[in-house]
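Quiz preparation item.
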């Protein structure tokens, strides 16, 4: 867990993993000797709702007898129609005491091995202790709805945020869309003819509650309008 007093502008791999596990509506379960199982939770709950992660040494949970190696695979897809929508992959490995089934009435216990987070910057390994010490992002389960609302209902505001990008992007930008949002800020994707780049616009301070996200976005827009006005005065 990181203190909010430090100037943090983006989430750690552990925070990204926790957000993806919390918000994911689908995952692939792969265990030895069995075909992959696609789990889709279309009822609005997270895909992890039927799996409980626990430590190998946790008393009363670890059972004798053979256990089945298993991995849970998650793909983090941008909710907005950006080019190359895959933002990250998360793989959680561990052991099951019985084959996984989506028909189970109770939560399936999975002995945690490790979590692997992968994005365009590389790979990071996350332990269960680190996940348990990580504060959930209050925006995680609402991010998709907030970004799609911004694009669908206020698309004229998105290009305005380019005024906050430093150094200013060149004139080759064909399109700009919000790629991601978390408690620390917003990520924009700037699309060019044959490539793209992502830029980070940090909030003035991290969001501690969901109802703080709106004011932080409005603060970014206000700053962008002030920057636009200053540029007009200089021309």
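Solution:
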């Amino acid at each position: 867990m990181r203190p909010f007093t430090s100037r943090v502008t983006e989430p750690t791999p552990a925070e990204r993993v926790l957000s993806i596990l919390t918000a994911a509506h689908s995952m692939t379960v792969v265990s030895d000797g069995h075909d992959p199982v696609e789990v889709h939770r279309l009822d609005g709950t997270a895909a992890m709702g039927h799996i409980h992660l626990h430590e190998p040494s946790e008393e009363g949970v670890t059972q004798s007898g053979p256990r089945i190696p298993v991995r849970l695979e998650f793909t983090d897809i941008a909710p907005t129609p950006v080019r190359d929508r895959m933002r990250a992959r998360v793989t959680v490995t561990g052991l099951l005491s019985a084959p996984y089934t989506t028909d189970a009435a109770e939560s399936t216990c999975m002995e945690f091995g490790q979590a692997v987070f992968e994005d365009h910057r590389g790979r990071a390994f996350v332990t269960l202790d680190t996940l348990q010490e990580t504060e959930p992002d209050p925006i995680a389960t609402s991010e998709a709805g907030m970004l799609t609302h911004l694009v669908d209902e206020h698309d004229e505001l998105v290009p305005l945020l380019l005024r906050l990008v430093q150094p200013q992007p060149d004139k080759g930008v064909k399109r700009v869309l919000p790629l991601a949002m978390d408690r620390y800020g917003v990520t924009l994707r700037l699309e060019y003819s044959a490539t793209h780049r992502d830029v980070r616009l940090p909030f003035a301070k991290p969001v501690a509650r969901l109802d703080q996200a709106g004011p932080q976005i409005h603060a970014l827009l206000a700053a962008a309008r002030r920057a636009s006005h200053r540029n007009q005065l200089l021309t």
